[in-house]
Design brief:
There is one protein chain. The protein is of the alpha/beta class and 193 residues long. The protein folds into two domains: 137 residues, 3-Layer(aba) Sandwich (Rossmann fold), CATH 3.40.50; 51 residues, no CATH class. The chain is 45% helix and 12% strand. One of its GO terms (molecular function) is UDP-glycosyltransferase activity.
Length: 193
């Protein structure tokens, strides 16, 4: 229902650039007649997107090059079927393939190179678009004294030996979900924050 209003805003303001997120996949179509440059901003990280695009482009025939990202057979089939269904049979007009012409060959992601560098690089290659990490966008003010205990703990751990668990700033887990994930992490016997 926002499309007519957004179109009117584009016509009235005539912006040079519009940055949109995945929930407004129709923005390039609306911006195209006004020759407005558009850039998509992804609120997710690049790992799952690179995995998904790899699968779509290779139709599951080529294994994902990063072995640490591997779904078990049942989950892999289920994920791939869901992904193919979403691509081939969008449920509504907003999910349909974009018919507008995105003018910029850039994707912005809410991530940073130190966390997902190899996935950023791989996604740039397979998607043929420059992937620019711009996150994390929301940063808490860190009280060095308050967090020194965590930093001391981390300093005692080997490089790449600790799992950082985060579900982003837009998802709030129930107490039960937190307990289940914590239980699974404890059973795995890995270091985690």
């Amino acid at each position: 229902m926002a499309i007519p209003n957004v179109s009117n805003i584009f016509k009235t303001l005539s912006p040079d650039l519009v940055i949109y997120d995945i929930n407004q996949a129709w923005v390039p179509t609306i911006a195209s007649p006004f020759n407005i440059l558009v850039v998509q901003f992804m609120t997710t990280g690049t790992t799952v997107v690179s995995y998904s695009i790899h699968f779509i482009k290779n139709h599951g025939g080529v294994e994902f090059p990063f072995l640490e990202i591997k779904l078990r057979e049942f989950h892999e089939k289920r994920y791939h079927n869901t992904l193919l269904s979403a691509v081939n049979h969008p449920q509504n007009k907003q999910d349909a393939p974009v018919t507008g012409k995105p003018s910029y060959n850039i994707l912005l992601f809410n991530t940073f190179r130190e966390l997902e560098g190899k996935y950023i690089d791989y996604l740039s290659v397979i998607n043929e678009k420059k992937v620019v990490p711009v996150g994390p966008l929301v940063q808490d003010i860190v009280d060095e004294i308050e967090h020194s205990e965590i930093m001391q703990w981390l300093d005692k751990k080997g490089e790449s030996s600790t799992v950082f668990v985060s579900f982003g700033s837009e998802y709030f887990m129930s107490k039960h979900e937190i307990e289940e994930i914590a239980h699974g992490l404890e059973l795995s016997k890995v270091n985690f924050i």
